[in-house]
Structures are given as structure tokens and as C-alpha cells.
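Chain X:
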Amino acid sequence: MRYDAFMSLISLKFAIFLILLLLVYYKVPKGHQWKILLSGSLLFYVLSTPLYFPFIAISIVSTWALMKNPKKSHFILTILINLGLLIFFRYSVYIGIHDLIVPLGISFYTFMTIGYAHDCYGKKIQPCDNLLHYALFISYFPQITQGPIGTYQNMMEQLKSAHDFDMTNLKEGGYRVIKGLFKKMVIAGRLTYYVDTVFTNPQNENGLTLIIGVFFYAIELYADFSGYMDIACGVSQMFGIKLAENFIRPYFSRNIQEYWRRWHITLNEWFKEHLMMPAVTSGWNRKAAKILGKIFKKAKKGNLRTVCPLVLVWIITGIWHGAEDVYIGWGVYFAIIMLFSVCMMGPMKKVRAAIHWNDENPFIIIFQTLRTFFIVLMGEVMFRAHSMTDAFAIYKNIFTNTRINGATIAAALTPFGNGNQALASVLILFVLIGGLFVVELLKEKNADAFQKHRYLYAGAMIVFTILFGVLGQSNFMYQAF
């Protein structure tokens, strides 16, 4: 599977494109601003993957036309068209079609088209009566690459409304862009080489090196993905349009359900709204719950009706990321964890009452947070490994071959280089990760932390990005999905 080089949000080409578009957007009469946004979004897409523009056009036109009359047959045909295109491009490699370039953002705009169709069919929204308005909703350039996954209800009015030039929006949006660039180019960029080295031949690495590699990968993934979201949201704010937040400090979650409410929020909300809830209320699930009730006679009916939909959602989530065994294993892993968590809610509630459990006790908060982070890390092993064989090798070495001595510490430092180079790299990463932790912790306690002098912080981040940023990385990690 290949992805064509596109106008990356961290490229000079994109910066020039953005400045010119902003100038035109605020110069034209306000009633025409949405047309400038549409023209800019289509131009962005054409410049990115010109040969594949017809496929997003097919999705846009077919979905809009069919859902003007949202009857069942039209809804099913819309699903078949959009899923058919997605499956062909994303999974054709598994049937022997290689070197096929995947259209930019196809996974994310497919979610938006199907979500729109489902909402029209369920009469939650009125079908859009203007094809060009709908085209702007699907193709809006800040979110087309990898989200956040917008909803028609939240986006359409903003997109077609007039927006006055607002210096606050420009400054606040610019601040978020700088923060996103810092996360991507400095934190994620500095971690990439170590992670790639460790995961290339994990069978040959000792347990300590693998523990560090898995930890670094979790930070890299968060910095890269949330960094993109900061850039996308910041760019959109410059146009006066608010995108949905996709991350709320997920690594401070105290249980796995909370983690998935904080990580890739719009994707999880999409699955809940358009797959989980319809499955829970479906006839086949009620029948399955009755069968499970005969086996697990003491289980609550509500929990039993959750079992099959949860498994379905997580397996599909895994397959959406890719048809490789590691992604399916990752989906099954979190399905089991989520099911166990749901089933234990009742018994644990009784245990907490019996031992007078205090959720606000600092030691309990730390324990729950570290426990949740550990569960996530074990899942991320599969998400990053090249195969389940590699994943099992990582698990085995971590749990059976972890020693802390001079030799293992030296081996763990090897990917950083030798001598002073390794020590400098370790020091830089220690400062970066420690700084990120402190910022996130203070924001967790007070959402308004760092607001007062944020432009000074922005200046510091610009300096750090210039001095320590890794240049030449145009792609974001989630672009592959």
C-alpha cells in the first residue's frame, strides 16, 4: 500500500498556500467566503493526489444525490459505493494488487459520507439541498488528511456562514499550529529513529531496550497524531471554524473506557453512533443476548446485550487500521479488555463499598492511571509490530529477558549513537518527555494552565523546533490509515 506525496501540513508549500487562501478568504464579500473555502479545499486535494480526485468526487456526488431521498435502498447503495471504494484501495494489496496509490484521506472522508447518510436515513438531519455545500463539508482541507471526523450537524453551518476577520482567531490558531509543529517535529521526530530501530528486529533486543522502545512509541504516536490535530484545528480556527477536539490528555485516564473517550475521540464517537448503538438495538443482538443469558445466568441483561456489539466494533476497528494479523489481534485484545471491564463493574462496585475505597486518594489515582497506561502499552506492542511473531517476541523478551545492569543499559543506548552523542540524545529526550508530562499534568488539573503567557511559550517552542526539530518528515503516522 502506498500513499502519494501530498501537500503536507508541515511543508513550506502548505504555509504559502494557507497564507494566500487566508488573504483571499477575508478579502472577498462575506457571502462568497464558503466558495473560497471550497475552491481552496479542492485545489489542496488536486495538488495532493490529482489522479485520485475522481474518486472523492464519486463519493461526494453519489452520496449527496442518493440521500436527497433517504430511503432504505438509497442508503444501502450509498454504503456499498463508499465502502466499495475504501475496500478496493485499502485492501487490494491483500489480493495481489501492489503499488496502488491510496487516495488522500479516503478512510476519513468515507466515515463522514457514511455518517451523513446514516443520519439522513435515521432522520436526524435534513438532507443537504446544495451539492457544493455538501462538497465543502466532505473536502474541507484541514481535516481531509486524517480527521478529526466532522459531523454535518456541527460543521455545515460554520462552513457556509460569513466570518469577520478576527485577530484573536488568527493568533490562537497560530499558537495551536506552533504547538502541533513542536509535537510533531521535535518530540515525535526525535523518538522516531529509536522506535524504528527497536521494532525492526525485536527478537534481537533485550527486555529493557524493548520496554523503552514501547514507551517511546506510545509518546511518539501521541505527539505525532495530536500534533497533527493541533495543526488542523489551529488552521481551521484561522478561518473562524471550530473543529472537534480529538484528544483530551488520554494517558491520564484512570480506566480503559475513559482512555477511549479521550483518544481519537471523533473516531470512537463515530463507531458508537453508527455501529455500536445500532448493533445493540438490533434483532440479531437480542437473540444473541438471550443465548448468552442461558449460559451466564447471573449476568445482567444490559451487559449481555453489550457483548456482541463490543466484539464487533473492536474487530472492525482493528480491520479498519489494516488487515494484517497485528491489527486484528489489537482489536481482539481491546475487545477482551473492554468486555472484562464491563463485566467487573458490578462486582468491583461492591468491593469498593466494602473496603471504603476512596477514588480521590492520590495513591489510588496514580495506581489506576499507571494500570491503564500499562494496558494501553501492551496493546500498542501489536499496533506497532510488523507481525504477531514480532509482537510475541517482544512480550516474551520483556517478561523473561529484562535485566538492569551495565550491559543492558549500554545496549538500550545503542540506537542513540555512541558516547557523547548518545548522552546528548538521552538528555534532550528526557527534557522533552518530562516537559510534555508536566504540561499535560498541569492541564489535567487546570484546563486554563499556560494560557497567561502562551505567546512566550510559543516563542520558546519555535526556538526548540528550529534547534531540535527533525526536518524532512512530511508524513504523519496516521496518514497510513
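Chain Y:
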Amino acid sequence: MNASAQSAIETAVIRKVSLRLVPFVALMFFINFLDRTAISFAGPNGLTAELGLQAAQFGLASGIFFIGYILLEVPSNLALHRFGARKWLARIMVSWGIVSLLFTWVSSVNGLYTLRMLLGIAEAGFFPGAILYLSLWVPARHRSKILSLFYLAQPLTVVFGAPLAAGLIEQHGLFGLSGWRVMFLGVSIPAIIIGIVAWFWLADTPRDARWLTTAEKEWLTAELEKEKGEKQQEQHPGVRTVLFNGRVWLLCLIYFGFIYGLYALAFFLPTIIAGFQQQFGTSFNVMEKGIITGVPYLFAAVVMFFWSRDATRRGCKTWHIALPALTGAISVPLALYMDSPLATILVVAVTASSIFAALPNFWTLPTQFLTGASAAAAIALINTLGNIAGFSAGYITGVLHDATHSYTLPMTVVGGFMLLSAVLMLFLNARRRPVQPVHIAQEQPQ
């Protein structure tokens, strides 16, 4: 096959994967992130008042999700590698949808803690499994683009999810339920439905994809096998070896800083916005608060798309990850010194944009030097240990707020962790192999 024909097949394959798999897996991720952060919308809209929660208790309820998540993350991702993404991702999604539905009737603090823990157990393995799944469908040179398209779902969850949650909360009294309970009911049912659909929509390997032609299957399979062979010639790390791989542990720490910032923002931004009335003398209704919550994430989605597009063109460079981390480290505490709601939200938008600009590019790193079960274990380990930050961010932010009656110290801590990510990324630079850039004609679907 000549170079022109191969280029045409490559363009067609990447276009089909981008249109067939990425939007659906991104939809799953959209629902996933909305369900796990729904507590942030419920908190200032009745949940904390009805259950009598202090900031530390709300932070613990937000973060305890990650305890169950962490315990089963690695086993779940290895199970996905063994049984296939189609079955395992569908199973995960239906499970968390059922648990999320139960929040509709939670009646005590301990019940809230229990359900948050169970939600983490049910969701364990979804995110790293989705990252691994999409990574196994495209050659390394296209992964930054594919993962950035997938990652768009996360900021867009808040852009569209916050007004959606607000709209459901405004249905107070529906079925005799409080508004925040109606919200939990409304966001959980789609998880169950889409989980069932995933069983029939996803394919485990390119060979199973009926939507690819024979030539496209052969090209994609050959490319992926070639990359796999090159990695295996360089080294043959097993799952146990991953635990002693210094680069994997550095990636864990870098990811920790990003996730700490991500969830401190996700869990407490609606509460901070609700405090604008006391801080600035302004008043917003539930829907207005929901729209304001989504504004920083709209900026983040746009920045992430173009930043990752640049990383795809040039090849993912150290500064594609380190520079956003540094920018976020500076902007997080700076937001607290603004003198108006507009200025505060604009600086928060810089923080959100920084986090989301770095994350999809970060996830191109593990599969540069690992393959097979080792890659599955490494991605799960990075996500597991990084997500300790998910627990820490919620709980520590709440405790520090209760102790100081201010968000100044909690947000300064967030900035410190993001600064750590920037420094460690620079340290990792000398040890990693850069991804080759993609010619722009290949990047754009035709």
C-alpha cells in the first residue's frame, strides 16, 4: 500500500473513532462526573440544612467517595483489561446509577456517608478504564487529540450540568420531594439507561468494529501491534514492576496536585458563589447561581480544546503540562482578593482553564512507556493515588474553612499543590520520551 493510500486510511480511521467512540464515552463521562459532583449543587440548596451538616462534614461527605473508589480502582481496571471494556464499563455505569438513585431518599449524615462510599465503589475503574480504552483505539501520535475530545465532557458537565441541576432543584415538591432530592433522581436515571446502551454500542477491539472497513481494521491493528512490539522490545514491565517504576510514582504526585485543585473547585465553588450575597451584597436565584457556576468551565472547555490541539500539532511538550499547573497555582489564591463577583469568577475561570488544559495532555504520558496489563495497572495506580486528592480536597478544605471561617487558607493550599505538580513535571522532563507531532492535515477529519 502506497503512502497516499495509508494516509487516507489513517485519516478515515481517526475520523470514525472520533465520531463513533469518543462522543459516546464522553457522554458516559459527562454523566459520571455529574453524578459524583451532584452533592456540590445539593449542598447549598437544602442538603446541608436538612441534614444539619457543617463545612467539615460536607467536605467529608464529598471526599469519602474516593475511599471506596481507591480501594477497588486497580482491581476494577485489571478486570476491564481481562473481560473487555464493553461489558465492564456498562456494568460500572449501571451500578453507579442505582447507587446514585438512592441519594433521593437519604435521611441522615451517616446515610449520606455510606452512600457516598458506595458510589465510589460502584464507579471504581470507570475513568482509568475509559482512558485506557480510548488509548487502545488510536496510535500514540493521535492520543492527545482523542483524549482532549473525551476530556471536554468534564468541564462541559458543569457548563450544562449546573443549570440542569438548578432546573431540577427548582422542581421542589415534585413527587413530594425536596428540590435537591429531585435533582438526584433526575441525574441518576440516565446513568442506568446509557449503561445498558453501552453494552451494545461499544466494541472491545478494532477487529470487532463493524463500522470499520476491512482495510481500516487491518491498518489500525497493524499500527497498534507495531507500537506494542516497540514498547515490549524496550522493556517488559509486569504489573508488579509498575509498583517500583519511579516515573509512575512521579506521575501519581503530579496528578495529585491537579486533582486536588479540580475537586476543591468542583465541591466548593457553588458554596462560594452562594456566599457572594454576604461578601459583596449581591443576590442570585438558584438558576442564576447554576449559570454562574458553569461560566469558568465554559472558558476551561475552550482553552482545553485549543491547548490540546496545539499539543497534538507540536507533540506533547513538558510546558503543555507544567505551564498550566503554574498558572493555576497563582490564580487559585488570587481569586479570593477580587473586589466583585465578576472579577472573582474570571480569575476562577483562569484556574479551571489551567487544570483542564493540563489533564488530557498528562494522560498521554503513561502509555508512552507502558503497554498491556502494565499500562492498565499504571493508569489505575496513578488515578487511584492521585484521587486521594479527591478525598483530601473536600475534607481539608472543609476543616480549614471551619477553623478559619474563610476560604483564604484552603485555596492557598490548593495553589501549593498545583505548584508542586509544575515542579515535578519539570523534573520528569529529562526522563520521558516526547510524543511525535502530528501533521495538521492528518489531525483534521475530512
